[in-house]
Amino acid sequence: GDYQYILTSDATEEGLIDVLATRPNQSSLYDRDEVQKLISDIKGQKGYMKGFLETLNELYDGWARGRIRAAKSTKDTQVNFVQYLMGIRSQFQENLELSDFKSGWGPRNVFVRGESPERTRENSRLAQGKHGHNKVDRGLQRLAQTLTKARDFWSSKKEVTRETPYRMRFDEDAWERQTDWEWDVKEFFKDHPRYEYLKPSIERMSINVMKVAILFAMMEQRDQVSMEDVLNAHYIACQWVEDLVVIVEGVSESYELRHMRALEDYIISKDGLVSVAAAFKWAVSNGMKRREFYEAIESMTEMDILKIVEDKRGKRSLSYGFKSG
C-alpha cells in the first residue's frame, strides 16, 4: 500500500527527532539489529548517543520533543513510535543494569526470546529452489492480507482520523478480566527476589496486553473487545512475562558478576588485603548498595575467592589469596 512505516535501522537522536517531526500522528517503526552495541554505545556516553534512552522514553509516551537549533528547529509532535530491537541476549544483559528496570527504558519494552532449535543433520541441509518458482510463506501472506483489509476498513471510517482517537469499548466481563491481569501477575511474583525490578515492567505490560486485545478486535473490524480477544492477548502475555523474568534474572547475574569482578580488582590493588569497612566505603562510592556488597562477599567466600580474616590490628578484613596481614 501507500503506508510507509519503517524509518531506518540506524539513527542519531537528533536525526530521529527531525524525521518524526515530519510524521505527526503516523505510525513509525525504528528497526535496529545488534541492540547490545546500541546499549553499549549509550552507556559508554558516546557523544552522539548521549541522552538517546531518554529520547526513546519520550517517544514511547507519544511525543517527539521540539528542538531549537541554528540550522533547523522542530515543534513538539505527537507520534506513534514503535522500536523493534534484536540482538544477542547474553551480551545485551551484560550491558544493562537492574536500575534500568526500575523506571525508564526497561519497563517500556516487551522482551521476547528467540531460542534456536537444536541442529540436526537434516535441518542443517539447504533446500534447492525450483527454476521459475518463488517460495511463498502462505501463513505470512494470509496475515498480511488480513491486516491490509483491517487497515483499509478503519481508514474508510469517516470518524477515524489520525488526529482524533477512536474509542474502543470492552464487554463488561472482558474489561473486568483485563483489569485484573496486572493484579494477578503482581500477586504471583510478589515473593520473587527481584520483584522490585519486575513490578514496573508488569505495570507497563498491562497496557500493552490491553492494546493487543484491542488489536485482535480491530483485525476483525469490530469496535467492541470481547472476552475471546482478552484471553488471546493474555495467552501471548504469558510468554512475555516468562521472558521478562529470564531477562531480569540474567541482568541480575551479570550485574552481580560485575560487582564481584570490581571488588576483586579493588582488593588486589590493595595487595590482597583490605578491611571490610574500607571495602564497603569504596563499594558505596562506586554505586554499590549495602545488600549488593554483602551478597558479593558471600558469593566470593563461597567460591573461595575471598576469605574473611583479621588483620594485624584485629580489624575484620577481606583477604584475596588468603593473606592474614
Characterization of the model:
The protein has helices at residues 13-20, 35-43, 52-60, 89-94, 138-156, 172-189, 195-219, 227-269, 276-285, 290-302, and strands at 6-8, 27-32, 63-64, 77-78, 80-85, 169-170, 224-225, 273-275, 306-310, 316-320. A hairpin with a 5-residue loop joins strand 9 and strand 10. Helix content is 49%, strand content 11%. The mean pLDDT is 86. It is elongated, with a radius of gyration of 25 Å. The protein has 10 helices and 10 strands. The strands form 4 sheets. It has a 3-stranded parallel sheet with strand order 1-2-5. It has a 3-stranded antiparallel sheet with strand order 8-10-9. It is mainly alpha-helical.
Task: List the topology elements.
Layout: E1 6-8, H1 13-20, E2 27-32, H2 35-43, H3 52-60, E3 63-64, E4 77-78, E5 80-85, H4 89-94, H5 138-156, E6 169-170, H6 172-189, H7 195-219, E7 224-225, H8 227-269, E8 273-275, H9 276-285, H10 290-302, E9 306-310, E10 316-320
Parallel strand pairs: 1-2, 2-5, 6-7
Antiparallel strand pairs: 3-4, 8-10, 9-10
Helix pairs in contact: 6-7, 6-8, 7-8, 8-10
Structural class: mainly alpha
Cα radius of gyration in angstroms? 25 Å
Order of helices and strands: EHEHHEEEHHEHHEHEHHEE
Report the helical percentage.
40-55%
- Please state the average pLDDT score: 86
Placed side by side, the strands forming the largest sheet appear as: 1-2-5
Strand content: 5-15%
Anisotropy-based shape: elongated
The beta-strand count equals 10
Characterize the main sheet: 3 strands, parallel
Low-confidence stretches: none
Q: What is the helix tally? A: 10
Distance between the terminal alpha carbons, to the nearest Å? 75 Å
